[in-house]
Design goal:
CATH class: Alpha Beta
Strand order of the largest sheet: 11-6-5-4-3-1-2-12
Shape: globular
Number of helices: 13
Radius of gyration: 19 Å
Order of helices and strands: EHHEHEHEHHHHHEHHEHHEEEEEE
CATH architecture: 3-Layer(aba) Sandwich
Number of domains: 1
Protein name: Protein NDRG3-like
Helix content: 25-40%
Organism: Cyprinus carpio (Common carp)
Pfam families: Ndr
Number of strands: 12
InterPro entries: AB_hydrolase_fold, NDRG
Family: Belongs to the NDRG family.
C-alpha cells in the first residue's frame, strides 16, 4: 500500500479544521518545496472528518454526528487498517483538538504533535456568535470565517478571504459543516495538567510526546494558545513543549507562511531524533541534500520562538489548487493516503 512507512518511521497524519478539508487546509504546506523535501522521508495520511470532503452527500435526517472524542477514537482503527504503527500528527483548530485527544488516549501511537491554533478548553467561539446570529446555516460561513481569520485579515487580505469564503460556502456541504461545527463547539475540556516532578508526574493527564504549538500573532486563536496562565501552553510538560508564535501571520499559518512552518517542522522532527539532511536555505547557509537517519531519542527542551523573518514564495500556488500532497518515494510516485472517516 503506497504511503505505508518502512521500518520504524512514523507516518505524518493530518487533521483539518472546521470549514476545511485536507486539501484546503494542507495543500499549500505540503506543496511547498521545502516541505516536499522533508516528506520524501515520510508517508503521509490525510484524514477528512465525516462529511467534510468535497462533494460529500448530506447525512440523513436525524444523523448523530460524532463527538470530538468519538472522532479521536476512530483514528486507531484507521491506522490499524493502513498498518501504521506510529504517527507525527499535524492538526489545525478542531483537528488539533482531535489529535490531542487521540494522543492522550493512545500515547504509544503518537511520536509527536504539531498543533496549530489548538484550544484544549470547553468554551467555544460559537457560543458568542450563536447568541448574536439567527438562522444557523445561513450565517455559518461568516461564523467559520471569523474563526479562521482576524478582523485585520478579513479587511486587508481580500484575495485569500474570497478564496476561502467561496470554498467554505460552495465546496463544503453546509448541513454537514453545521454538524461538525456543533460537535467542535460541544467539545469537553481535555483536562490536561502540567506534570510536577515528585508530585504527580506519573498520574497527571498530559501529553507525553514532543509538541510544537503554532499560532499566528494576529490569529483569533492566539490568546487560547499563548496565554501562559490559563490555556494550553501552561498545561503541557515544559520539557517537551515548544511554542512558535509567527509574526505577521494570522489564522492559517500553514497557508500564509508555509516556509516558516516547514522550517519549524524540520527542526521539530530533528529534535525527535530524525535527522533531516535536506536542501533548505537558512540565513544564506545551505544544508546539503542527503538522506535521513534515525538518532537516539532525545528530549525536546521547552522554548518559545517568535518567527520574524519573511517566508519564501517558492511553489506558492492557490491553497485549493494542485495535487493533494508533495510526498514522493524514490521513484517519484505519490506516497499520500487520503482517508474520509
Amino acid at each position: 500500500m503506497r504511503g505505508t512507512p518502512k521500518g520504524n518511521r512514523p507516518v505524518i497524519l493530518t487533521y483539518h479544521d472546521i470549514g476545511l478539508n485536507h486539501k484546503s487546509c494542507f495543500n499549500t504546506l505540503f506543496n511547498f518545496e521545502d516541505m516536499m523535501e522533508i516528506t520524501q522521508h515520510f508517508a503521509v495520511v490525510h484524514v477528512d472528518a465525516p462529511g467534510q470532503q468535497e462533494g460529500a452527500p448530506p447525512f440523513p435526517t436525524g444523523y448523530q454526528y460524532p463527538t470530538m472524542d468519538e472522532l479521536a477514537e476512530m483514528l486507531p482503527s484507521v491506522l490499524t487498517q493502513l498498518k501504521v504503527n506510529s504517527v507525527i500528527g499535524i492538526g489545525v483548530g478542531a483537528g488539533a483538538y482531535i489529535l490531542t485527544c487521540f494522543a492522550l488516549n493512545q500515547p504509544s501511537l503518537v511520536e509527536g504533535l504539531v498543533l496549530i491554533n489548538v484550544d484544549p478548553c470547553a468554551e467555544g467561539w460559537i457560543d458568542w456568535a450563536a447568541s448574536k446570529l439567527t438562522g444557523w446555516t445561513s450565517n455559518l460561513v461568516d461564523i467559520v470565517m471569523a474563526h479562521h481569520f482576524s478582523t485585520e485579515e478579513l479587511t486587508d487580505n481580500q484575495e485569500l478571504i474570497q478564496t476561502y469564503r467561496l470554498h467554505i460556502a460552495q465546496d463544503i456541504n453546509q448541513d454537514n459543516l453545521a454538524l461538525f461545527c456543533g460537535s467542535y463547539n460541544a467539545r469537553q475540556d481535555l483536562g490536561i495538567e502540567r506534570p510536577v516532578v515528585g508530585l504527580n508526574e506519573n498520574t497527571v493527564k498530559t501529553l507525553t510526546c514532543p509538541s510544537l504549538l503554532v499560532v499566528g500573532d494576529t490569529s483569533p486563536a492566539v490568546e487560547a494558545v499563548v496565554s501562559f496562565q490559563v490555556e494550553c501552553n501552561s498545561r503541557l510538560n515544559p520539557t517537551k513543549t515548544t511554542l512558535l508564535k509567527m509574526a505577521d501571520c494570522g489564522g492559517l499559518p500553514q497557508v500564509v507562511q508555509p516556509g516558516k512552518l516547514a522550517e519549524a517542522f524540520k527542526y521539530f522532527v530533528q529534535g525527535m531524533g530524525y535527522r533531516t539532511h535536506i536542501l533548505i536555505s537558512l540565513s544564506h547557509l545551505t544544508v546539503p541534500a542527503a538522506g535521513m537517519t534515525r538518532l537516539s531519542r532525545s528530549r525536546s527542551s521547552s522554548s518559545s520562538i517568535t518567527s520574524t523573518d519573511g517566508s519564501r514564495n517558492r511553489n506558492m500556488n492557490s491553497p485549493l489548487d494542485g495535487p493533494n500532497s508533495g510526498v514522493l518515494d524514490n521513484q517519484g510516485r505519490p506516497q499520500t493516503m487520503e482517508v474520509s472517516c
